[in-house]
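Practice problem 4.
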């Protein structure tokens, strides 16, 4: 596809010692809003699912 450029930029967070890759994106406003919402749902921690078992009364 002519005119399509992909830039992958190495990045290091010196404070935390984390390394990663920055991928710049240019999307139309509405698409960017949807992208942000989807990315947030994947990256933000969710409340842990607490699986409880029903209590069974003992006949002892």
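Answer key:
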């Amino acid at each position: 596809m002519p005119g399509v450029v992909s830039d992958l930029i190495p990045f290091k967070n010196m404070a935390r010692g984390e390394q990663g890759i920055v991928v710049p994106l240019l999307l139309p406003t509405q698409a960017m809003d949807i992208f942000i919402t989807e990315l947030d749902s994947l990256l933000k921690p969710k409340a842990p699912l607490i699986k409880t078992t029903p209590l069974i009364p003992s006949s002892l």
